Amino acid sequence: MKVESSNPQVVGVSTTAASFVTVVVPPGSTDTPKVVLTRLIPATQEGNATITVTRDPATTAANYPVGSVNVAVPVTLKQQEPPPSITVTPSSIEFLDNDLIGATKAVKVELKITPVGGQVVLDIGGTPNPFAPGAPFTVSPSTLIFKEGNKGPQQFGVIRLTDGVFAGSITVKLNTALTTASNFLTGDINIVIPVKSAVGSIQVEYAQSVDCTNNLGKIVTVVPQVTTRGKVLPPFTYTADPPLPSGVTLNTTNGIISIQCPAQAGAPPIGSTLSTLVTVTDSSSPPISGQAPVIIKIN
User: Fold this and answer.
1) What is the pLDDT of residue 16?
2) Tell me: the pLDDT tens digits for 48-72?
3) What 3 state SS string does 175-191 have?
4) CA-to-CA distance for 42 and 184, rounded, in angstroms?
5) Strand partners, 191
6) What is the pLDDT of residue 40?
7) Partners of 140 in the beta sheet?
8) Concatenated DSSP letters of 185-227
9) Closest CA to 193 of 120, 272, 105
10) Which of 291, 272, 273 is nearest to 281 (CA)?
11) How far apart are the C-alpha atoms of 129 and 135, rounded to whole Å?
12) pLDDT in tens, 10-52
């Protein structure tokens, strides 16, 4: 009998990945010979083939005339693993203005599938070229090697080289020339990580309501929640626009809003809403500022 693959580039017959083999059954034998099929496409691909079993012309048994054997066996090759890819953490990098020259941000890289049959090599580059003179940042190491059976994680560092504001990106690419893992040979890995520097910033928030009903005749205060990033220089100055109404004051040093509650329940300003825009400015030159829309319901 002749056992043949219709798609020998996808499924080979026998361990030698041939397109066909011949199976011989001796006269009177009750043997059940086995034929090995070999997958010839990567585990990340899908494919199909048909294995046909027919009477070989060399058959001499009288009870197996021409045309007596014609069996078709469909073969489906499913994707055994997810496509070769990587996970990169973080997905973006930001240097603050108080990150000195030499400050390093770590980037963790992990393969989503384990290398089979060899190694996976990733090259680290970027725009502008992190290895050129005058580059605002560089990377180290510039190559990550994942040995067979090891998907990481590994990490590299992005290192600040200059002061001032800059923007660019880091690229993590598959080195196809040095990658030998069979399940990455068809991979197309090209991850881009944005990199930028930023000046300091100030964020300020106020609560959205105060209780005068239970504080008749008293002064209630709203203390701002201030968050700073990077290099900011105290003291801060707070201003409000439009100006606050009578009975409401803004401390220009600490940003606290004070509201005089009435002596009687239900009297103004109970039931009203205070609306303004507060700006906070530091003492840098030029100054760094932040703004907060303030909408406070006076209950």
Assistant:
1) 65
2) 999 999 999 999 999 999 999 999 9
3) CCCCCCCHHHCCCCCEE
4) 8
5) 172
6) 86
7) 157
8) TT---EEEEEEEEE--EEEEE--SEE--TTSTTSEEEE--EEE
9) 105
10) 291
11) 7
12) 998 986 678 899 999 999 888 888 888 888 887 768 899 999 9
Both structure tokens of 168 = 């660019």
pLDDT tens profile 134-190: 999 999 999 999 999 999 999 999 999 987 788 999 999 999 999 999 888 877 899
Q: How far apart are CA 146 and CA 64, in angstroms?
A: 56
Residue 274 to residue 209: CA distance in whole angstroms: 9
Question: What counts of helices (H) and strands (E) characterise the chain?
Answer: 0, 24
**Half-sphere exposure in the Cβ direction for 60 (13 Å, CA):** 5
Adjacent-strand bridge partners of 47: 77
DSSP H stretches of helix in 127-270: none
Predicted confidence (pLDDT) at residue 79 exceeds the cutoff of 90? no
Residue 291 CA, distance from chain mean position: 31
Q: Residue 208 and residue 226: Cα distance in Å, rounded?
A: 15
What's at 163, amino acid-wise? Answer: D
pLDDT, tens digit, 9 for 90 and up, residues 214-267 = 999 999 999 999 998 877 889 999 999 999 999 999 999 999 999 999 999 989
CA angle 28, 1, 74 (to 5 degrees): 125
Dihedral, CA of residue 282, residue 288, residue 289 and residue 290, to nearest 10: -110
- The answer for 149, left when phi > 0, alpha when psi is -120 to 50, beta otherwise, is left
Token reading at 187? 């991979």
- Provide the greatest CA pair distance for the chain: 118
% of the chain at pLDDT higher than 70: 98
8 Å CB contact between 124 and 144:
yes
Q: How far apart are CA 127 and CA 137, in angstroms?
A: 10
